[in-house]
Amino acid sequence: MAGLWVLGEVTADGTLARISTEVATFARTLAEAAGQEVAGIVVAADPTAAATELATYLPRVLALSEPAAAERAWSMVAAERIAGILEPDTQEFMFAGAGPDGRDLAGALSAMLGWGVLANALGATWTDGGPVVEMSVFGGKLKTTSRFTGPKGIVTVRPNVVTAAPAAKHGEVEVVQATGDLRQPVVRTVERVVEAGAALPIEEAKIIVAGGRGVGGPDGFKLIEEIAEALGGAVGATRAAVDSGWIPYGQQIGQTGKIVKPQLYLALGISGAIQHKVGMQTAETIVAVNRDPDAPIADFADLVVIGDLFAVGPALLAELRARSG
Asked: Which of 56, 157, 176, 230 could form a disulfide with 166 if both were Cys (CB 3.0 to 4.6 A apart)?
């Protein structure tokens, strides 16, 4: 059996979730440095497509077909099947994405097996037979390193802390048959609702134009949307803007929203509070427009324009449109 396992999450259309490609890269890099074996596990009604894609990142992937995953909440079903695969007397560590499904599965698996959980990992090294995990705490104000007291544990990895990179060689997919009945309580899925929005998820956008309290209201976000469209990017927001009802929650960036890593992050009317910073601080280039020269965002942005966004924004938009015209 492998020493390190990667949970492969499956999207509604049967493909591999983007976060799992990042986690696979994270765990594979750690395994190579530590001289450990690493493998993936995909549990789904039809795991074929996701397992095949995960094998481009890992040397070995177990594909377990479980029909119950199609009509019931996935995390508990997957956790029970995975628990049946893991060996009770060997050193094993499970790596999963720190998204909704990964967190649910980590909790369920921890309860079933008694394994500890280290959440929201930013990085990891291997020391004395186990991972030493770097984590962000207190809303990103501090970073800590922790390790498991025993030879087993679960690590959830924050989105966008690594860039997914396929392995040099395509791995093998091994089909595994589920055995025994599911005994844990499961939740039946009665309806799926797909949120209408941009074609590209904000977590995958290379350019993000985000607005905060300084935008002033939903009408102010029309300017944000126009600039994002001119740049070919996505629209983001702070929690203050979301809580005010100016923009949907799905576009919130920060501690209680999405974690993003674009090439360009254009922050308009955003003060840069720590809760927002933790969601976008890994952007390659951060450009801020703010009237307050002492706003916290000035301490970490690459470029700060001191001015009214309703003066700077239209000027920027006009220049963008002139260049594309």
From this structure: 56
